[in-house]
Amino acid sequence: MISETAYFTALYIWMGLAVVTFPVLLKITVPYGRHTTNTWGPTISNKLGWFIMELPAVAIFSWFFFTGPVEKTIPLYIFYGTFTLHYLNRMIIFPLRMKGKRKHMPLAIVGLAIFFNIFNGFFNGYWFGYLTPGYDNSWLLEPKFIAGAVLLLTGMLINVSSDQKLLSLRKGEHTGYYIPYGGMFKYVSSPNLFGEILEWLGWAMMSWCLPSFSFALWTMANLLPRALDHHRWYRKRFPDYPKERKAVIPFIL
User: Fold this and answer.
1) Concatenated DSSP letters for 10-70?
2) What is the b/e burial string over 230-247, where b = at least 16 CB atoms within 10 angstroms of the residue's CB?
3) Could you count the other beta carbons within 10 Å of the beta carbon of residue 112?
4) Contact between 156 and 86 (Cβ < 8 Å)
5) Distance CA 223, CA 210 (A)
6) 3-state secondary structure at position 45
7) Which of 218, 223, 217 shows the shortest CA–CA distance to 249?
8) If DSSP codes are grouped into helix, strand and coil, which group holds residue 188?
9) Which residue blocks in 100-209 are alpha helix, DSSP H?
10) What is the C-alpha separation between 135 and 75, in angstroms, rounded?
11) What percentage of the chain exceeds 70 in pLDDT?
12) Burial class (CB within 10 angstroms; exposed 0-12, middle 13-18, buried 19+) of 141
């Protein structure tokens, strides 16, 4: 068993790496999805890539969550269920709904995602399985749990509905890119990413612990630059792109 001192020392280093990663990603456009290029080496099918890179998140988190001695309560099962639900969607459902069989992503991106998911799954799974002092069922009535649950569910709804709008643009033989309209696309270019940020901020509020906040920190460090890249891409590709749209945070950014 890892000592709390060693665990939190590693966690602080992990969070520091997120802070360093943020400005790097502001300078580098990560080449997958609409930004895919051949400059990052060999590629793999998008669908297979999503499955492979998200699998460690569920596997590692589940292993430490269930093998640890911490008594499992309803709040803990809710934390576990919402975490795994998101990743099962990303790992299985989302890839199966994607259009474009020929689309690929660099293996390097898959490797980086696996690296993140191993450590993120460990830090959160180990906390909930081994180190947490416990969450009894009265935690369900805590204001921070209730507020976090509302934020998480709101983010999940925005994320999934926005993904659906993007996928619906590619019905039939249409596999190119188009300007999305409706829903939160009225306000931002990447409401799916905005929704995911809300999800993990909500999850962090629900559980109110440092490892879950580290996940929210990493989510913002990764997705805010990604959304800015998407916004610039839309404006460059479509001369008639709505000028009033922000990149990711309505009315702000």
Assistant:
1) HHHHHHHHHHHHHHHHHH----SGGG--STT--EEEHHHHHHHHHHHHHHHHHHHHHHS-S
2) bbebbeeeeeeeeeebbb
3) 14
4) yes
5) 20
6) strand
7) 223
8) strand
9) 107-126, 143-168, 191-207
10) 6
11) 94
12) exposed
* Backbone torsions φ then ψ of 104, nearest 5 degrees: -130, 165
Q: Is the pLDDT of residue 36 over 70?
A: no
Q: Is 47 helix (H, G, I), strand (E, B) or coil?
A: helix
3-class SS of residue 246 = strand
Taking alpha carbons only, the member of 25, 42, 17 closest to residue 227 is: 25
Q: Which two tokens stand for residue 184?
A: 């939160």
CA angle 16, 150, 71 (to 5 degrees): 70
- Angle of helix 46-67 relative to helix 74-88, nearest 10 degrees, comes to 170
DSSP helix/strand/coil, 232: helix
Interstrand relation of 104-106 and 43-45 (parallel, antiparallel or unpaired) = antiparallel
Please name the residue that has the structure tokens 């803990």: 76
Residues with Cβ < 8 Å from 249, sequence gap 6 or more? Answer: 188, 194
Give ∠ CA 131-133-138 in degrees, rounded to 5. Answer: 140
pLDDT tens-digit map of 48-99: 999 999 999 999 999 999 999 999 999 999 999 999 999 999 999 888 887 7
Say if CB 137 and CB 73 are below 8 A apart: yes
State the Cα–Cα distance between residues 2 and 51, nearest whole angstrom.
30
Distance CA 185, CA 192 (A): 9
What is the pTM for the complete model shown? 0.92
Predicted local confidence at residue 252, as pLDDT: 92
